[in-house]
Amino acid sequence: MRVGVIGGGQLARMMIPAAIELGVDLRVLAEADGMSAAIAADRVGDYTDLETVLAFAREVDVITFDHEHVPQDVLRGLVDAGVAVHPGPDPLRFAQDKLLMRERLSELGLPVPDWARVESAAELDAFIDAHGGTAVVKTPRGGYDGKGVRVVRTAAEVHEWFATAAEDGRGGALLVEELVDFRRELAQLVARRPSGETVAWPLVETVQVGGVCSEVIAPAPHAAGRMSDVAAEIAFAVAEGLGVTGVMAVELFETTDERILVNELAMRPHNSGHWSMDGATTGQFEQHLRAVLDLPLGGTGMHADWSVMVNILGGPEEGSLADRYERALSEHPTAKLHNYGKAPRPGRKVGHVTAVGDDLDTVVYEARAAAAAFQD
Ligand code: ADP
């Protein structure tokens, strides 16, 4: 069983131990030397070049991804050449383009924020006026960690975004949404095999700081029963409706008037699922490999009542994470560290820690304190 991962970031890196345990031969096509997954990156090459990607794909049974940026023409070229690609180009379109995603989810009758496609400042101002004077504008493609997302009161604030959108040859359209009054953000992680079997992990709460995920609590507190059922139903409907294979995270808003709305889709293992590596019977990286190989999926139950993941954002101002090991590991023996092998840089995700246990306050404290020990 050989799996090829396109992209050499930390998600590819975290698939490596899961592959070893399953006896899967994992190959990585990295963008550059020395990336997070360099330990398994036997190839470095341009993922936008079909010949490079085809040569890599010929050595494996299935192609999957560390990110969603492989262009559609390359994905289609792989499929045309008979390569198994999971997730395939059809579902990936909806993870690559937020306008297409909103359109499709609305067609499927799934709950999303009020939205519109706008091609001019006048159209955007009309939407803002109709939604109480504020709205959220998003570039349809290429945004991440809050980049390409802006709260605006007038179209003039995103004047240059229309110009940039026009340049990428897609009609200059932007996505505009109502500013959702949310109580908190949630994420529903699921996995689906090509033959259809689909499983869900418990619904989680995600905490964002400055547009970047900082903390995840599994399961989401006060979300038992109806709310978690609704979230799982939504994620199953997305996975089936879009034909997603592998792991998918559905990012959700819990509104102040008790609704669940879909914000974003990630068709790969996701930050909101890192807790599962240490907190659930089957971690998301192992599950992703099982799913893309069309193997039976593993159980998603939790080892303990709570599991909390805290990102190490930036890392120490000087030196590396390893320079902190002596003190951090001795002071926090119950926290599980995952070091991505990346150079510290302000705001960069360089690792995470997870704590697991039956008392939420203790678990939150342990995870936060351990992560703090690796930051200044
Ligand atoms: P990306 O995943 O590209 O960073 P998102 O669409 O997930 O972008 O938006 C980033 C963050 O911005 C969200 O996590 C949320 O906190 C906030 N946000 C996005 N859309 C809305 C909205 N319609 N209303 C209120 N806040 C929003």
From TrEMBL:
Task: Tell me the superkingdom of the source.
Answer: Bacteria
Query: SMART domains, from UniProt?
Result: GARS_A
> Which of UniProt's keywords are assigned here?
ATP-binding, Ligase, Nucleotide-binding, Purine biosynthesis
Pfam families associated with the record: ATP-grasp (PF02222), PurK_C (PF17769), RS_preATP-grasp-like (PF22660)
Domain ATP-grasp stretches: 102-293
The enzyme's first-digit EC class, named in words, is: ligase
Q: Which PROSITE patterns match?
A: ATP_GRASP (PS50975)
Q: Key word Nucleotide-binding present in the record?
A: yes
Write out the function statement from the record.
Answer: Catalyzes the ATP-dependent conversion of 5-aminoimidazole ribonucleotide (AIR) and HCO(3)(-) to N5-carboxyaminoimidazole ribonucleotide (N5-CAIR).
Listed name of the protein: N5-carboxyaminoimidazole ribonucleotide synthase
Q: Which organism is it from?
A: Agromyces salentinus
